[in-house]
Amino acid sequence: MALTCARCGAQNPDGNQFCSACGTPLTAAAAAPQSAPPPAPPSWLATPPQPAAPAAPVAYASPPPAPAAYASPYYAPAAAMPQAPVHRTPWILIVSAIVALIVVMAGCGTAIALLGGKASISGGITPDLPSPSPAGSPSPVASPIPIQGPSATNPVVTVPVPAGWAVSAKDNESITLSDPNGLGFVSVASGLQNPHMTAQQQKADFDTVWKSKYPDTVECGGVRPTTGSLGGVQGIFWQLCFTIVSSGRSLPAETDVFVGTNADGSTWYGVILVTAQTYMQNLKSEAAPILKGIQWKLK
Amino acid sequence: MRCDHCSHDVPDGVFCTRCGAHQGTTEEFGNAKTREHRYAAHPGEHVAQPSVLTTLMPHLGHHKIHEFRWAFIAGLAGILVLYLAGLISAAILLSAFLVPVLYLIYLYEAQVYRDEPAIVLGFTLGGGIIIGIVATVFERIVYNPLQYSANPFSHAGVSVGGLLIVGLLLPVVQEALKPLPAFFLPKRADFPETVDGLVFGIAAGLGFSLAQALIGFSEVLTALPAHVEPGNWIYDLTTLAVFQPLLQGSATGMIVAAIWRWRRGRLAGREIGAVAMAVIAHIAFAGGTQLMKETSVNSLFILVWQAAIVGALLIYIRYLLHHSLLEEAAHMGYAETVCANCHMHIVASGFCPNCGMALTAAPNAVKRSRRPRVESPASAARKS
Known about the structure:
By secondary structure, chain A is α+β, with helices and mostly antiparallel strands. Chain A has helices at 26-31, 43-46, 91-122, 199-213, 280-292, and strands at 3-4, 11-12, 132-133, 151-153, 157-160, 166-170, 174-178, 184-192, 218-219, 226-230, 233-246, 249-261, 267-276, 295-296. Chain B contains 13 helices and 3 strands; from the N terminus they run H-H-H-H-H-H-H-H-H-H-H-E-E-H-E-H. In chain B, strand 1 and strand 2 (345-348) form a beta hairpin.
């Protein structure tokens, strides 16, 4: 026998507990007298969560009012209806998992750093550039030695290009050479400067520029700047350690820097070597012929 | 009552349980049928609200969202404490793992994988990790950051080659590879809904992000001393902990969701736009970051840029998912169930008549507990 829904009049197969068209409980609707009070909502229904439930109908018109004697069953089914077994991870478990993650990662990170990190920085990198000498000592001016083999030149400097090295950039003030393995580069530059500056002022400017690009820049392993000469020019040698973060990759890198000026500060000279911290010693060995063969053109 | 929009007889409620349309007058909110003021997965929010957790974890009710939010905040606080303590290696590790681990807990909570946890987790998170390893190794071959590092002596300016690799080639390759694990997921017929595809894509993207972070930062992890001056590491940590995983996860989630829509025979402007949006957002994120780093823009502006890109991605995901849920939930048929959002015990079809949540976005345990009602031939005939 088909069951007729008391609300919408739809015919439902025998045995249906709810109207297939409008969802009205067929048995409840049929059995409950029209004047009966609405079924008491279960305790979990008594205080529905406020944020999710739509606010009181201030912003939109309420649905059409139900008949006075009709109690909408859709939010308050019979108490006998079992509550669905909602899978719920206790909040304390979720937060505990994250706290455990913090502790484990702190432990692992510290262990990794203790095991592998210290050797590469704390030992420092000894400058291997030519002729460091105490600050204030007069600078010997080297006699130009003709460069044997290939070289690169611009209006301010000439540098030898050893086998395997390549000129990666060149302009009127600088020449940049990439090492044979593509793991670093040497850049040699010079130019006139006005107002005149000392090597110390040049160093300060360089540090500022470098730290703006690599904010974690520090002097490597406590190695202090030294003075000396390069290619016959007096200047300052120092080393900076920093981290290159690019495209999701992070690399501990180092730059060894020389900046110098002529006697009246009207001309500046600079050399930088840039590579990974672990490769700097190799780069300096490979770059030694370049550094020894630098010929400054501005005097 | 009769729905104002689909004209079906439906249970009384603020929302039609068949089409999800908001009943009554809602002019001040916009279109009642598309009801974008009530995001279908979390009706307490607008579709255009760039909320991270309710977008990436659409199956959670609002109670659970709060718990996950607090867990996320606890993780971020942990990163901050490690940073302030100078334990940068530990902070990097925690940053890499935080969002993927949180998502793993979410997958368990929502049981999106249904009866196939090993297959689903293996092909999404696991597959993403493998793809991440392969892609990062490839990236190391084609891109050496040392070659494009700063040279204050040179007037070469921005390196176009580096920008093209980092800002164009790598994002496109990554977005082509990351959806593959979810694309080849076996038994995908068991997970037919767009929200499934979205979650699988996000999981694959987060797996990728985890592998990328661990491999990408491996040299720093093994080189940094245990304690260093915190310096400006906080910027890179923020990207690593928040924006990179959100970008990778949401971009892949959106592409996989679009693939799922295509498999359902729905490939229109919205879906094509989703794929385009994901790729463009990734290009903008990576290229913009690279460009700003090369031009020494303040790191704070880089974070603002990254946040803007991720926010736009999240909004598009919500837009795509919202309309997908509105279209897909109607097939569910009447059943007794519990709304995962408002926790009302309801008799409904595709949407909670009380809060409007799409019931296809309910956790799996709730879906399983539905007690479906067979539609009567008379009702079917009347509809036809």
